[in-house]
Design goal:
By secondary structure, this protein is α/β, with parallel strands linked by helices. The protein has two domains: about 220 residues, Rossmann fold; about 80 residues, Alpha-Beta Plaits (2-Layer Sandwich). It has eleven helices and 14 strands.
Length: about 325
């Protein structure tokens, strides 16, 4: 759904914000871009709908290469790309219904079609009773729900999220993330979100790209990255002291937890298992984690082969 190739952005002052970025986002997935402040995340997101013009490279959304479009064609293409903002960007003088209707007005949609669409969107984001309220009367979470409804007004296929939860408290953040996941499932939306919060990635993302200094260090489906030796994402989600002490074994699993694996090693191979540390998360309904152990006695070599045969990532220090 989104293809970025060789994306480069250099500002007039010489700052290189993007330095040869390649990124693919599958249709219907939630793809997170994770990085610290200054990594280039916001610039990357704004290049997807050409609010920022890349210095070089190609941006293709839903099969259309955007950089070669004329003004009218680009405006039409942007209607298929909704965007929600960190600080809501609502019009303070308009009601909730008026904010949601605004992009439809700009697009020239008649009032008779705007009003039922606004009601539909209010129901969708759980604000049916707030149509006549103004932004000053809303909580932060409610404001962001208005922003999401407004971004969906034109029926986009792609939704861009610019740190949409970073100004919210943890409970409200979870409610907004749950809403995004529901919209993804019910509407088939492809969502590209940027964040500096690992919890956002763990909560709703199917895939992730990790950015640093204008480059993507690694990218892929979360389950695939967790099963990849040396993946930065694994170290971020499941922190353990690095480097691993000599003679230890680090076992990483992504959903393969149907049996008590460590006790099986003791029973089958007569090894002693000393657990030195570990971290476990449930991501997208599947248990995933890392465990660092020291195996002694018995048939250690056979025990390691057994773990590998289960599809676990086994790294021996």
């Amino acid at each position: 759904m989104i293809e970025l190739r060789g994306l480069r952005k250099v500002y007039p002052n010489g700052v290189v914000a993007l330095d040869g970025v390649d990124l693919s986002v599958r249709e219907g997935e939630i793809h997170g871009v994770l990085g610290r402040s200054g990594a280039g995340k916001s610039t990357l997101l704004r290049c997807v709908n050409l609010l920022e013009r890349p210095t070089a490279g190609m941006v293709t959304v839903d099969g259309t290469e955007l950089s070669g479009l004329g003004h009218g064609e680009l405006r039409a293409a942007r209607r298929r790309i909704g965007m929600i903002h960190q600080h809501f960007a609502l019009l303070s003088s308009r009601t909730v219904a008026g904010n949601i209707a605004f992009p439809l007005e700009v697009a020239g949609v008649p009032r008779a079609r705007r009003e039922p669409r606004v009601r539909e969107l209010l129901d969708l984001v759980g604000l049916a009773d707030k149509a006549a309220a103004v932004p000053a009367q809303l909580s932060g979470g409610q404001k962001q729900r208005v922003g999401i409804a407004r971004a969906l007004a034109a029926g986009p296929r792609v939704l861009l999220s610019d740190e949409a939860t970073s100004a919210l408290d943890p409970a409200t953040t979870q409610s907004i993330l749950a809403l995004l996941r529901r919209l993804n499932a019910e509407l088939g939306l492809t969502i590209l979100l940027i964040t500096h919060e690992m919890q956002v990635i763990k909560s709703i993302c199917d895939s992730v790209a990790i950015m640093k200094a204008g480059r993507i260090e690694e990218a892929g489906r979360i389950t695939d990255l967790i099963a990849t030796p040396g993946a930065a994402l694994t170290r971020e989600i499941f922190p353990l002291p690095e480097p691993a002490p000599s003679g230890t074994v680090t076992v990483t699993f992504a959903g393969q937890a149907d049996e008590p694996v460590m006790s099986a090693l003791v029973r089958r191979f007569g090894v002693d298992v000393n657990i030195l540390g570990g971290s476990l998360e449930e991501l997208r309904g599947a248990p995933m984690g890392r465990l660092r152990v020291r195996l002694t006695g018995g048939r250690v070599h056979d025990a390691l082969a057994y773990l590998t045969g289960l599809g676990l990532l086994v790294e021996v220090a």
